[in-house]
Design brief:
The chain is α/β, with parallel strands linked by helices and 212 residues long. It has a single domain, classed as Response regulator (Rossmann fold). It contains 7 helices and 5 strands; from the N terminus they run βαβαβαβαβααα. Strands 2-1-3-4-5 form a 5-stranded parallel sheet, with helices on both faces. α3 links the parallel β3 and β4. α2 runs parallel beside α3 and α6 packs antiparallel against α7. The longest helix has 29 residues.
Amino acid sequence: MVKPPKKILIIDDEAVFLEASKKALIPCGFFCITKQDPSEGIMQLKKDSIDLVLLDIMMDPVDGWDILNHIRSHTNGNMVPVMMSSAKKLHPDELIRYGDSMDGFIIKPFLDSELCETVNEFFSFYETLLKISHAALIQGVPESVRKKWVQLNRQIRAMNQIKEILTPPLIIQEPISPEEFLQQRLFQINQIITQKQSERDLIQFQYPVFRN
C-alpha cells in the first residue's frame, strides 16, 4: 500500500518564498499548502491533518513567534512539528525562549536541495521516534510518558542543531563583547539541553523499550 505524501503547511507573508518553498518540496514528493495570511494558516491547521509547518518569523503585523505560540496553544497544534524560517540568523535568547516549541530553523534564501534534504532528514528522525513510541504503546507505556519522550527528543535535536548557527545582536546592553555574550548564552543553552537529556534518559531507564 502506497503511503500518502506528507502534508506541509507553509506560512509566509512573502509570495516569492511561498512559491520557492513549493518549488523545492513538491518534486521531493511532498504535498504543500501555502498561506500568505497567518490567520488563514492557523485555520487550515485547525481543520486539516498537517505533518509539518514551515513558519516564517519576519511577518507583519504579527510575527512568527506569536503565531508559533498560538499554534502550540491549540490541541491540533500541540504536537505538530514546526520549523521556523528567516533571512536573519537567530538570536540566542530566541532559542532559549522558543526552543521548546520548534523543530528546526531554515535560513533564507535556500537551495531547493537544501530545503528538501532538511525536511527529509526531519521526517526520517521523527518517524523513527513514532515507531518507538508505538512499540512503547504496545507494551503499555502511558501516553503522557510517550508524548514526553517524543517531545524531549525533538527539542534536544532542534536545540543542538540551531545553537550552531546563532548570532549575537549588534547592540548588547551589557559591558561585554558580542563573543562573550554568545558564549554565556551558549553555556545556558547547553545547560537546558543537558537537563532535557537527563529527563529523557530517566524515562529510558524506567522504560527500556525507548532504548531500542
